[in-house]
Amino acid sequence: MSPAGHTASTGVEQVSVRYPDGTRALRDVTLLAAPGEAVAVIGPSGGGKSTLLRVIAGLTPVSAGRVFIRGERPVDDPGRRNVAMVYEESHLVPFLDVARNISFPLDVRHVPKERVRQEVERQAQRLKLSSVLRRRPATLSAGEASQVGIGRAMVRQPSVFLLDEPLAHVDAGERVWLRHQIRDAVRDAGVTTFWVTHDQEEALSLGDRVAVLVDGQVVQVATPAELYARPSTTFVADFVGAAPIGLLPARLLSSAGMAAYDVGGHILPTWAPVPAELRADGSRSLQLGIRPEDVHECPLPDHGTLTGLVTAVQHTGRYAYVTIMLGEHQLTGRFDGRTDARIGTFVTVGLDVARVHVFDARTGQALSHPKIA
Question: Is 89 helix (H, G, I), strand (E, B) or coil?
Fold first, then answer.
């Protein structure tokens, strides 16, 4: 029986995994990918990301729920699921050259040599490995070894591709280039892919959708743009983004239907009506989420500005990310790279209040987001 509304989907539906010691690794997880879709899975360590891949591969049994591969319930034997996995370590055969490492899954199946040669050439072209086909693994960089491991997995023409931190050991400079090579190769192959990573930048650049997995539960699944623009919780808001989101306690004020926020006695007007999501209970405690691009440096204090102590400055060229302490709370602003802000000095900032995200201070759940232009 296929998952409802997803006749050719791959993934899990209402899956839970409980280990013999009582640990719940996955809790009622549903995550289904459409044919050819790439889903990136991110979250903190121990959240269940690798367990999810192992469940799809058939390496970890489920306590409840169902697994689907191309809309069908797969056999229990992992070796017959036609699933390809790539881990942090490529585990290449050291005495075989790159070409033989890529062809290994075909060689053990006694695939005709001409077809093997064609498949190896195709993967080498996809992954830009043609120049290293005669080299041994010991002579490869970490990035090249990762590419070979991926080529070896793809040559099998799997039904689903499972990547578990394949670039973890690759240098930062090489990783950026390599992730685009792998993304293009996977899309060219048209194979449904689940990519587990700790690197949220990697997830946002690789996934058609991104799933955030925390404590064995999926807290949000969305496109990269939607995940950034409409995070479902304060955790997601803080986890996703090049710099941390600022979270400030606030109270909603309303005058003639227009909204303002009281932040530590500072009144920040929005010059807009009270968001519909906040009208039912205007007395609840709130947290305002402010992205760095919505915090700007002001020359002098004024109505609606905040002043805080600079604790960190990170220059990135055109911009400088400046971390400010406002009492016990931290805010990061994206300033002009020529800013005079220095650690230990005070700066005054203005907020684009119309761009704030509003969360319930007790539950962390999102209540209101700025409209996407």
Answer: coil
> Looking up tokens 């689903």, which residue turns up?
160
With b for 16 or more beta-carbon neighbours within 10 A and e for fewer, the 215-229 pattern comes to ebebbbbbebebbbb
Residues 197/202/204/205 CA torsion (nearest 10 deg): -140
Per CATH, which fold does 246-368 belong to?
A: OB fold (Dihydrolipoamide Acetyltransferase, E2P) (2.40.50)
Q: Vertex 66, ends 63 and 68: CA angle to 5°?
A: 140
Using CA of residue 119, residue 121, residue 125, residue 128, what is the dihedral sign? Answer: positive
Query: What stretches of 19-59 adopt beta strand conformation (E)?
Result: 24-33, 38-42
Number of H helices, E strands in the chain: 8, 20
Q: Where are the domains positioned within the chain?
A: 10-229, 246-368
Residues 285-333: pLDDT tens digits? Answer: 899 999 999 999 998 777 778 999 999 999 999 999 999 999 899 999 9
Give this prediction's pTM. 0.86
Q: In the sheet where 64-68 sits, what is the strand order?
A: 24-33, 10-18, 64-68
CATH of domain 10-229: 3.40.50.300
Q: Are 282 and 258 in contact (CB under 8 A)?
A: no
Amino acid, single-letter form, for residue 294 = D
Show contacts of 44-50: CB within 8 Å, 24+ apart: 44/214, 44/239, 45/198, 47/213, 47/214, 47/215, 47/216, 48/17, 48/213, 48/215, 48/216, 48/217, 49/164, 49/196, 49/213, 50/164, 50/196
State pLDDT tens for residues 227-243.
999 999 999 999 988 78
